[in-house]
Amino acid sequence: MGIMDGFNGDINNYISAPRRSGGRWVPHFLIEFDKENCISCGRCIKVCPGGVYTLEDAGDKMTVRIESMDDCIGDMSCEKVCPKNKTMHLHKFAPLTNIT
Question: Could you say which of 40, 47, 56, 70 has the lowest number of CB atoms within 10 Å?
């Protein structure tokens, strides 16, 4: 079963939370990371409250890698601070549907 299975456009089919404005916030969880185009600036590591990312010694340089994708809380903070994301979209996200 894929993460987008069952999507019909109805926000009530998603795990969501209320916003102050009265709307609904739908978390979007990390499902893919483009390590090849990452510049390893480390901004995602600093802002990720779930500890999804870590630095790895790649010999001549340090590189960002996924430590635990399952710890993603869906706030997309890594995407917001990524300097490459405006053009390359290194981080891929999807909402999690309710399990019924």
Answer: 70
